Amino acid sequence: MRFxxxxxxxxxxxxxxxxxxxxxxxxALGVGGLLLAAVGACQTAPPDDADGREAAGAARVNEIDRxxxxxxxxxxxxxxxxxxxxxxxxxxxxxxxxxxxxxAWLEVDEAGAVDLQQLVTRNALxxxxxxxxxxxSPQRSRRLVDGGAWPAFSPDSRQLAAVARDEQGNERIVIHxxxxxxxxxxxxxxxxxxxxxxxxxxxxxxxxxxxPQLVRSRxxxxxIDTRSVxxxxxxxxxxxxxxxxxxDDETLFVFAAFEQGVDLKVWPIEGDAMRFVGYTAxxxxxxxxxxxxxxxxxxxxxxxxxxxxxxxxxxxRMVTLDLLAGVASPLADGTHALAWLDEExxxxxxxxxxxxxxxxxxxRPRELMGxxxxxxxxxxxxxxxxxxxxxxxxxxxxxxxxxxxxx
Length: 407
Fold this sequence. Notes:
The chain has four helices and 28 strands. It is mainly beta. The strands form seven sheets. The protein has a five-stranded antiparallel β-sheet, with no helix packed on it. Strand 12 (204-210) and strand 13 form a beta hairpin. It is globular and about 55 Å long.
């Protein structure tokens, strides 16, 4: 890792942003948005001028500046090949493991009537199942969990955790070993468990949940080896604490949604208090509003933990927020799904082109390839990107983009 933001600098920058940027809007994804249409029925037609060249594996050469120390151009050849179909139940985009080897998605039984609203607001899991497959052959999928959702891969890509409900209606956390296929089931005694996240060292899971008899969600951590659960500090403003993200193995970044908006907070998990570091105005300031704002990004924080990515529905575009400098950089109009390539670059789509941005995203992007291509995972080191394209009704096509250095 070439850059890792120190927590002290990060919190100083966020506190500055919290004062000077108060009132900036982190809006929810609109119904007419490209991402929501793709997440739903997957019936979006390709652009009129799309002729299938990329899907057929054709290559084209583009000039991309990837040298941080010089102003010279480096040439890359891009080759894209369709890998196979991936079902879409309208419950969110498939998730890809950190090493790019696995892909996980949700399916709904024909008799099931669960939609995204019910999943987010009620944790409705009836008829929902979790599936996983190698990313190079999605047709070899395995059905891991019935009545399960909220999948999360471990940092080493060896485990897949999910939330499941047993026949008595009790919620469990299921951890599946992708190699041995063994499962362990942990009952934390909570309800409405959502947004699982592994710590960077893979030892601990963070999530939001409700304790029995409580209506406000709080953030919890679960130490996997000891199965011990730690509850985060209670909110002083009757806020829901949602979507925890790890800054490091000992610190969580938390969204606190209340009636007036969404605060950004930091919780050192050994401490008994959260620190306010910024304010947003996601509309609506609810679990659903936050879910839609983050729906197109598997990892809202970049690898260095300096940038936060989210979707601004009012402007219909993705935004990256520099948490150290306190500067928000809107991406091109119509951009939705986003994947980090490394600490210095990201991929997104405006529905017509696959776009490459260098961070900070203040310059015009480079158009890499035409077509509706939703980036889900990428790595400059591996020279690969995994993309989703609309297939038939209820189906994505998974594609692999190979980046070949032509120097």
